[in-house]
Amino acid sequence: QVHLVESGGGLVQPGGSLRLSCVASGSSLSNYDVAWHRQTPGKQREMVAHDPSVGGRTGYADSVKGRFTISRDNAKNTVYLQMNSLKPEDTAVYYCLAINDRTGYDYWGQGTQVTVSS
Prior knowledge:
By secondary structure, the protein is mostly beta strands. Helices cover 0% and strands 52% of the residues. The protein has strands at 3-7, 10-12, 18-25, 32-39, 46-51, 59-60, 68-73, 78-83, 92-100, 106-108, 112-116. The N and C termini lie far apart (40 Å).
C-alpha cells in the first residue's frame, strides 16, 4: 500500500509555471505506474500525464503536450509535474495516481488546487 501527498499548487498568472510534487510513503514508487489527473467541477477527472514503472514512454493529454512534463525521483519516492505556459483552462484540482504494476491496485492523493488567473 502507498500513501500519496501532493503539494505545489496555487495561484499563478497565465503564462506562468508551477511544479507539483507527489511524495509517496509506505512503498517504493519504482513498483508503480504513476500519473497526474485533474478535475474541474462538473467534469470527469482526466488524465494529464503518466509514466510507466518499467520501460515504455511517458504520455500526455493533447491539451498539455509540450507544456507539461512528468518525472520521478525514485530516491526521494516523489513524482513531479512541471507545468509551463499555464492557461486559464488548466485551472483544476490535480491528483496524483499510483498503480501497483503487479496487483493493479490504485492509490490516489488528496489533490492540490491549481488556479490560473490574472
